[in-house]
Amino acid sequence: MPNRAPSDALFTAHIARLGQIFTHSLTAAGFDSVVIGAGFQHYRFLDDQTYPFAANPHFLWWAPIDNAPGSFLCIRPDARPSLWFHQPEDYWHKPPATPTEAWLAEFDLSILRVPNEARANVPTGAAFIGEPFAGIEEWGFSAINPPALVDRLHWERAVKSPYELECMRIAARRGARAHVAAAAAFHRGASEYGIHLAYLAASGHTEAGLPYPNIIALNEGAAILHYTELQSQTPAERRSFLIDAGAQFRGYACDITRTHAAEPGGRFGSLLAGLEAAEQQLCARVRAGVHYPDIHALAHRLIAEILVNEKIVTCSVQAAVESGLTAVFFPHGIGHLLGLQVHDIGGHQAGPTGGQRPPPAADRYLRLTRTLEAGTVVTIEPGIYFIDLLLAQAQRDGRGRDINWEAVNALRPFGGVRVEDDVLATDGEPENLTRDAFDAFASA
Ligand code: GLY
Ligand code: MN
Ligand code: MN
User: Fold this and answer.
1) Which domains does the chain have, with CATH numbers?
2) Is the pTM above the cut of 0.90?
3) Which pLDDT score is estimated for 251?
4) Is 220 in the pocket of ligand 1 (CB under 6 A)?
């Protein structure tokens, strides 16, 4: 499977594009330069142990360095970006090695032994983007995370460069390989924890390197949207398996969900097949110019059709959507922006200069309300779940009258189904990064 890093030329073009974005954004926001902090390690309360380090995504956008807290970038229009790389003298921990990859040639590199050494190099009037730190007021920044600058950058982050897309394709192949290993572990009879270990081994990630904690649920656990309990006992009866797990390359994430049935056929198999087909219909809608909430609205309609076909509800498709009955079974958004963050920033932003466009209350968990542009990567992740809390609410508020409780009770022990792909919007046909990655793996 070709998993080579993107070419140097792609990275060079990516840096040139970022240079344009930053030049324009700095000028519009009234700054001559910006310093971007990678971030710092954080200690647990009353402890000398740190949390896993996660680099500032603005830093990662420029430099694929995720292991050098205390580093900075300095960006000035019409100048090469400076990388102030923090490499402490430390014999307790391994200091981050100076990068040797060809991409380093895009930066003017200097080494910091302590982060404070960077202070003398800060240009007059520079803005700062990143996590504020003790003593920052002495560094002379004219603004810290100014919205006039940050909003523009968040808006631009939604559209990926060819380099970023190549990173995301590599992440998708890494994730697909691990999903195949996880499915095999399930069919061998592994526990949730055993499946998790199989996933990690096949992905090559440590737990801290995953873009988000693995959701690996057998049976009823699949009804908990972000279930991360990882039981080490295999249940006596294995009925269903939902896995929502990702991978990353140079900080760019994939976000993939698959649901498996222990036995083919039956009510649960039919529900899963229906959801798979709906998911593919929804993925086909991803393209430039499409208002993403329209895909969410279509998802409710398709889910209503499945609920009627599977005799889970007794009313019409239209009534199920209009009464909010579909939201009992599909209580989250259809997806979100994807990139350096799993829920990439800016999903509710109204425009390049900021402002918020939140979803209506009935769809409050929809994370993306923008119109898609070519180069935007989104997830499409419909699901149908049997969640005790929401079913009880429906029983109380009257929506339960249209529920076929015999069907619901038969399906409750399976938890639920979700299928999630990562899809690139273009001016033409969408590119399904996830399906392509599984296909590449199957044909390798
Ligand atoms: N894995 C989190 C999500 O699908 O949004
Ligand atoms: Mn997702
Ligand atoms: Mn997911």
Assistant:
1) 8-156 (3.40.350.10), 162-443 (3.90.230.10)
2) yes
3) 98
4) no
